[in-house]
Amino acid sequence: MNTLLQDIRYAGRRLRRTPGFTTIAVLTLALGIGANTAIFTVINAVLLKPLPFDDPGKLVLLSERILPQFPILSVSYLNYKDWREQSKSFRGVSAVQNLQMTLTGQGDPERLPAQRANANLFDVLGVKAVKGRTFLAQEDAPGAAGVALISYSLWQRRFGGHEDILGEAITLDNKPFVVVGVLPARLQVLQQSPDVMVPLEPWAKTLPDDRSWHPGILPIARLKPGVSLEQARAEMETIAKRLEKQYPEYDTNTGANVNSMQDQMVQNVRPALLMILGAVGFVLLIACTNVANLLLARATARQREIAVRTAIGASRWRVIRMVLTESLLLSVGGAVLGLILAWNAVPALLHLGGTSLPTFGVVHIDSQVLAFTTLLAVVAGLLFGLAPAMHMAGLDLRSALNQNDRGAVGVGVLRARGVLVVSEVALAMLLLVGAGLLIRSFDRLSRVTPGFSVDHILIADMPVSPGGHPKAAERMEYFDRVLERAATLPGVRSAGAATFLPVSGTGAVIHFNIQGRPPKSPHEYTMASYRAVTPAYLATMGIPLIKGRLINDSDRENAPAVVVINQTMAKTYFPKESPLGQHLQLGTEPDKTMPQMEIVGVVGDVKQSLASEAPTEMYVPFRQADAVLPVFNMSLVLRTAGEPRSLAASLTGAVHGIDANQPLVNIRTMEENVATSVAQPRFRTVLLAILAGLALLIAAVGIYGVMSFAVSQRTREIGTRIALGSSPAQVFRLVIGDGLRLTAIGVVIGLIAGAAFARYLSTLLFQVGAVDPLVVLAVTVLLVGVALIACYIPARRATRVDPTVALRYE
Hey, which of 265-269, 358-362, 444-448, 760-764 has the most confident mean pLDDT? Predict the structure, then answer.
């Protein structure tokens, strides 16, 4: 122990005597360790940390498998009921449905994230109320009186945390609900942090008796002890086949998915996060390589000291331990500074990730992250300290003690440092190729034309509570008044509204049939995206008319039913004939109670996701749509003459002037809306670009260090060349050539490794191949250019060597 303390004190003194070297080494390591710590903090919270429920490994999500109609988590309510009653693999099966509810009566109206849930959900999850209780079984039944659970944050924020909240009545969507409990702080259920939860069954009684109806029910189940995921899947498939025989008109080819709740929640973001973790690991490896280069240069200057220590009795192990102790001290310093950097970087990462990062609690540096950073520091210290330690332990005493015989040692060290630089360049090249592909992919994604005019548009969601305007005529009149008031605001050119906006991650997909073409079997059901819109919506959005006409003011309740379809729908269902004059009817089969809608126009395609093709889509006049599907939620669209954001306050005032209890939610520009839709590709692109830039910078420092060291070691050779007549230009080219040779080897190796990395990235790319010549050329030129800059100063210094001084010195 005393010997170890001596080594630590000695290493500390040596590092203090060389502040320049110590600062560069610690900063380099801090960048690598800090980046790894920050990324691991996010990955730990998103991928590794178990869900904050009792025994989360037993929680599973259930959904129907009927691609491509429903590619997201979904199940019909009637199928869910049968699953719940017939399955034996689960200790409990429950369900939630995400929605928004308007709270009024306690200050300004507020639109709250909410969920409907079965009473047994809290038993399935293992969650208890922190105040009061959760739902009783009789409260989750058709016709039961309204009760509600509120979140801890809402209790504190809106109700001041007062103790008599239990039993108090609150107004949600113009209906009274009695508060029976307060939920735990930061509770998340399926990535939703509800401020309000209400029972599901009283609402479910209003659903149509139709197994094709998917109202957003999300079933959650808990496996029984001893039941595996595979056994549950086998049982659910059996139940699905049984239901298919029992209800062939609805459940043909409808299977059942059973997936781990944790895996399901992170499946979309896992590939990107693992890619970033690998990239940040390469950055640390480059940093370690760079510090190893610095230590090798330092070892050359200390070889006589080590030789003397060895000559007077120091063992090889003692020499190795002394050098590794110094390396570990540097690594500890880098880890401490890296933790500070990570502490400040994590909030920036979360902000950059936005809604694309599913987090299940507070993301912070905890004991697991500290353990990871400590392990990282130890491994890094050993990694970059091993090469100089082995070099010092293997010194030839006779050569080392002879001060004039340094050439052979210098050649060996140069060769080792050259190998390290090649490794740095190769790793930097790999990251640059990956970053280049993602940047090119994101650039192409950003250039996708969404099918409408994005600029100078202000949008806002306007959910109308069923209790506030229960009659269709009242709602239609209300929407008309709001649009009329909004259209007359100063700076507004036109105003419209739709039930769902494009590129928002929301929308309705509905069955329909074409007059004269009834479906022959359930396999031939036709589906399309469905939007109810106001007359001015299509023109306000700038969606072009291809043929026919747009929806106009005459398309009202008592007028003939009409519909406008997009180009994709026209090409898909009317490839050899004009769609104008054809008739559509909503539903899976002809129904005399449903109106036949005449196709009166065809408009351009609108992207619902920039990365996918436009779907088949129909637009129905909102005054005619309410008779079939009641319209309660509309999104306002205002085309403005100036900056859209400047009209936000005026729009809010106009809406509240008509109804003081009507909330206006998520006011934003259309440009912001489109930017949000590409948050995940932007997150991974920006991160990998930053890491690649960091790797390039560290590699450039490494090249500069090696070339500077090479020039100092070859002072006698360079002096001799100049004395024999070599010009400064020839010496300059000699040094530059050595640097470029190392760079070229690293570039070739990096391109080979980059090809494999690009294949891994292929699933994350948009309209870019895994091998893109433009990216390869660009990053090669960039890396070679940086290498030239790094070699320039050592090469200039070599041209100024005085041969007389150099030869006398040697």
Answer: 444-448
Q: Cis peptide before 68, with omega less than 30 degrees from 0?
A: yes
- Residue pair 143/202 in contact (Cβ under 8 Å)? The answer is yes
Higher pLDDT, 513 or 106: 513
User: According to DSSP H, which parts of 518-595 are helical?
Assistant: 537-541, 567-573
Highest mean pLDDT among 144-153, 189-198, 278-287: 144-153
Q: Is the pLDDT of residue 392 over 60?
A: no
How many residues appear in the chain?
A: 810
Query: Higher pLDDT residue, 621 or 595?
Result: 621
What's the CA gap between 7 and 239, in Å, rounded? 70
The answer, yes or no, to whether residue 801 has pLDDT greater than 80, is no
Q: What is the DSSP secondary-structure string of 403-458?
A: TT--HHHHHHHHHHHHHHHHHHHHHHHHHHHHHHHHHHHHHHHHT---SS--TTEE
Count CB neighbours of 755 within 10 A: 14
Q: Are strands 633-640 and 457-463 parallel, antiparallel or unpaired?
A: antiparallel
pTM exceeds 0.85, yes or no: no
In the predicted structure, residue 368 carries a pLDDT above the cut 80: yes
Which pLDDT value is given to residue 397? 47
Q: What is the rounded CA–CA span in Å between residue 272 and residue 156? A: 37
Separation CA 386–CA 380 (nearest Å): 10
Alpha helices in 584-678 (DSSP H): 622-625, 648-658, 670-677
- Which tokens in the block code for residue 298? 């330092």
Q: What is the dihedral of CA 306, 311, 314, 320, to 10 degrees?
A: 40
Q: Give percent above pLDDT 70 in the chain.
A: 86
Going by their DSSP bridges, the two strands 526-533 and 617-621 should be labelled as parallel
Instruction: Say yes or no to pLDDT of 519 above 60.
Output: yes
Q: What's the half-sphere exposure (Cβ side, CA atoms, 13 Å) at 334? A: 35
Q: How far is CA 21 from CA 24, 296, 604, in A?
A: 5, 12, 63
Angle of CA points 344, 346, 351, to nearest 5°: 110
Alpha-carbon distance of 65 to 254, in angstroms, equals 6
| Per-residue tokens: 300 | 């050359």
Average pLDDT value over all residues in the chain: 82
pLDDT at 761 over 70: yes
Q: What is the pLDDT of residue 769?
A: 82
Could you tell me which residues come within 8 angstroms of residue 411 by beta carbon, excluding any fewer than 6 positions away? none
User: What's residue 402's pLDDT?
Assistant: 53
The Cα–Cα gap between 316 and 421 comes to 27
Picking from 355, 61, 60, the residue whose alpha carbon sits closest to that of residue 193 is 355
The percentage of residues in the chain with a pLDDT greater than 90, rounded to a whole number, is 25
Name the residue among 525, 502, 585, 518 with its Cα closest to residue 69: 525
Q: Got the DSSP string for 95-138?
A: EEEEEEEEEESSSS-EEEEEEEE-TTHHHHHT---SEE----GG
Q: How far apart are CA 257 and CA 622, in angstroms?
A: 36
In the predicted model, is pLDDT for residue 494 greater than 80? yes
Reported confidence tier of residue 408, pLDDT bands at 50, 70, 90? very low
**321 neighbors 411 (Cβ within 8 angstroms):** no
> Which residues are within 8 A (CB) of 606 and not within 5 positions of it... i.e. 6 or more apart?
450, 451, 452, 502, 541, 543, 566, 614, 617
